[in-house]
Amino acid sequence: MIRKPQRIFVSNRLPYSINENGDLKRGSGGLVSALMGVSRSENFSWFGFETNEDHALKMHNLVKNTEANVNCYPVYLDKDVYEKYYNGFANDILWPLFHYESHLANFNRSNWEFYQEANKLMAQQIAEVAQAGDTVWIHDFHFFLLPKMLRDLCPEVKIGFFLHIPFPSAELFRQIPVREELLSGVLACDLIGFHEYSYLRQFIVALKMVLGVEANFIQAQYEGHRTQLGVYPISIESDEFREKSQTPEVEAKVEEYRRQHSSPFVIVGIDRLDYSKGLELKLRGLQHALRKYPELRERVSLLQIAIPTREDVPAYMSIRKEVEHLVGSINGEFGTPSHNPVHYVYNSVQETELLALYRSASAILVTSKRDGMNLVAMEYVMAQDLKTPGSLILSEFAGAASLLSDALLVNPWDVDSIADAIKKAHDMEFEERLDRISHLQDILSKYSSTKWAQGFIHDLENTILTPRRIPKPMPIRKEDWNNDFVKFIASPRIAVLLDYDGTLVSIMKRPDQVVLIEETRKALSALAEKTDLFILSGRNREFLDSQFQGMKVNLAAEHGAFVKLIGEDWKTRISSDINSWYPHIEKVMNDYAEKVPLSFVEKKKASLVWHFRLSPQDFASFQSKKLDDELQLGMANQPVTVNIGKAIVEAKAIECNKGSFLRWLRQQANSVPFLCVGDDRTDEDMFEALDGAGVSVKVGEGQTLAQYRLSSQKDVTQWLWSLASALS
Asked: Which residues is 497 bridged to in the sheet?
């Protein structure tokens, strides 16, 4: 019987818990509803941490007996380890920094090690269940390392990751000491999702700044693996939530609350008492509204529910103290014997009470400083009775603002913005309130949390697994070479293509400083006696002639645009019209050389190179992107290619391509196998064009299509000696 692929969900917390009576209790959060809804008709598994070993075993068995299609896998984690992984790293580093509160981030190397340990344990537990063809969907910032760890254990499993909180600006993200590890870990996914485009944009910038990975809004490529990227704003179970808000129990509670309200216009606030929610900004905005618009006094009040969270953490204790001080200040300034402008509740509320608060309030005020989405805003919208619709006042820094366009959007740091929005909501005519809320309800009715989950899973399951191409280490000593490489060099005759800069010689700040050392020259001469040796470089003809004078090697200049075979003169492979683009690009590059200190333009026959290795790196790197964009757009219809390389921007005739040169050479070579060695992005064209006709070797770090990797340029000369002595 053929096994059907299964879906595996992973989150920090499981959708179940064991209550004080030892009974199984199912969670009611938005993620639980969404994932349970999307997989209700088929078997699926859910992994999460449990710090009580007895509860873990009991939960697994109880779920198995009560939920026919759910396999629950509580992963036992020692309480001390969990505390340091969860609170010590995830909540003390990632949570504050991702919410732009970097001054509250507290990095501890020991806690980072526990974060690694927790991710590793989760990967090992999933690997015992996951099989080829399965889909694993990982949720949130607790598991940035899990995708790579799981990929190493289960290479044929499709892996998705969704970030439920904002992704911060790249400048903030760079402050994390383990930034490279976090990004390289999550890039092992096949699909990564975010709530909105701004988060995805910041992620793309961070990839470039931290890992040097060029990505777009569709995909990123890293170490030979392609990762799809996307935006999937989460929602709530909209219609179900609307139905719950219309029950007789809720309606009775609504009437009770309306009788108790001390003012005709009640604003409700429902927030966890977390520094990211901006409760102190909300209160300052209300205070300013009562000062700016005296007519609102005794007519407008705020009913604020502050839900306790992490009460023993100093930052949360501090925000509670500030909020309670502001509540007292506002009530002291504007309160009367019969009216308090702020009714503050530091406690949770039951669902019936919550729904009644939504329906009885004239408006809701959400002033998040940063918020992944903010489902409270959506719940308020769907709970509204269209006979008495309220208003949604929403921070523009909440992810929900990108979806709920008919809300009154405010900058929470601008007290005037909040005050004006409160005044507008108070004065708004019924027709406008109805139009705004009904349109918002239409949006949410068509986009539920189940549809969010369905959309992500559909895209994940339709990704194409890219086989991981991990280069094998290339030892320097021939005694350590693997059998495949030994068999390859046993061919009667091979052709060897060697790059120059970064391969035969070290990269230098000024190209004119780079010369071939005598030891490398001797190794090349020995190799040339036993192979068809080609030096394939971006350098011009004059430079290659000067460096290889008197040596029996074939030369290819400007990435293969010009070729000089042994005993012959230089010949051109160019047939396109260089003059159609060369003068214009030369002028543009010269303009950039004037702007950027210590940058300069290198002129060749079929190419132009703008060098900025000596320039201030951040400024020059920014200008290089501008130059690249300008040339790509302006030269789109010309026979020229433009690329950004290692501290260069290069424009070259279409024939200046190492892949094109290798294909041309293969046509002349009568099935001779090729050994191609290089270090740069331009060498990847050569590795790709090899297409099984030989062996490729990457020199140094970085993603590559090559089959083997030499660790650094310093190893090349000794390796060439080994190669020459091993060839028959």
From this structure: 534, 676
DSSP-H helix ranges across 462-511? 483-489
Q: Whole-angstrom Cα distance, residue 270 to residue 153?
A: 43
Is 134 a residue of the active site?
no
- Which H or E run includes 71? strand 70-76
Q: What b/e sequence results for 48-75 when a residue is b if at least 16 CB atoms lie within 10 Å of its CB, and e otherwise?
A: bbbbeeebbebbbebbeeebeebbbbbb
SS3 600: strand
Coil/strand/helix, residue 588: helix
For the chain, how many helices (H) and strands (E)?
26, 29
Strands 648-653 and 607-611, bridge-based pairing: antiparallel
Query: Could you give the CA distance from residue 585 to residue 567 in angstroms, rounded to a whole number?
Result: 35
Q: Identify any residues that bridge with 49 across adjacent strands, giving them in sequence order.
A: 75
Of the listed ranges 365-374, 464-473, 649-658, 677-686, the least confidently predicted one is: 464-473
CA distance 728 to 131: 46
Q: Are the CB atoms for 271 and 306 separated by under 8 Å?
A: yes
What angle do helix axes 658-668 and 681-690 make, rounded to 10 degrees?
Answer: 30
- Of 659, 263, 364, the closest CA to residue 499 belongs to 659
Tally the C-alpha atoms within 13 A of residue 525's C-alpha that lie toward its C-beta. 12
Among 38-47, 288-297, 578-587, name the most confident range. 288-297
Q: Answer whether 426's CB lies under 8 Å from 373's CB.
A: no
Residue range 356-371, pLDDT digits in tens: 999 999 999 999 999 9
pLDDT in the model for residue 728: 64
Question: pLDDT tens, 27-56?
Answer: 877 788 788 777 666 788 999 999 999 988
The percentage of the chain sitting over the pLDDT mark of 90, rounded to a whole number, equals 77
The H or E element that residue 434 is part of is: helix 430-445
Q: Cα torsion at 114, 120, 126, 131 (round to 10°)?
A: 170
Rg (CA), the chain: 32
- Phi, psi at 43, each rounded to 5°: -70, 140
- The structure tokens listed for 202 are 């910041």
601 near 609, Cβ under 8 Å?
Answer: yes
pLDDT of residue 703 exceeding 70, the answer is yes
Q: What is the pLDDT of residue 637?
A: 87
> Who's near 517: CB < 8 A, 6+ residues apart?
505, 717
Q: Which two tokens stand for residue 461?
A: 């399951």
Q: What's the pLDDT at 206? A: 93
The strand pairing partners of 272, in sequence order, are 307
Residue 486 CB neighbours (<10 A): 11
- Catalytic hit among 134, 420, 499, 683: 499
453 φψ region: left (φ > 0), alpha (ψ -120 to 50), beta (else):
alpha
Give the pLDDT confidence of 442-480 residue by residue, as tens digits.
Answer: 999 988 999 999 999 999 999 988 766 778 999 999 999
Size of the chain, expressed as the number of residues it contains = 728
Is pLDDT of 311 > 70? yes
Sheet with 674-678, strands from edge to edge, namely 472-473, 708-710, 694-699, 674-678, 495-498, 532-536, 554-557, 562-564, 571-572
Asked if residue 386 lies in contact with residue 434, where contact means CB atoms within 8 angstroms, the answer is yes
| Backbone angle region of 540, left / alpha / beta, with phi > 0 → left and psi within -120 to 50 → alpha | beta
pLDDT of residue 229: 96
Q: Exposed (0-12), middle (13-18) or buried (19+): which is 617, by Cβ within 10 Å?
A: exposed
Tokens of 675: 């050994």
Q: Please give the distance of CA 450 from its chain centroid, rounded to a whole number.
A: 23
User: Residue 660 and residue 562: Cα distance in Å, rounded?
Assistant: 12
384: closest CA among 428, 424, 427, 434? Answer: 434
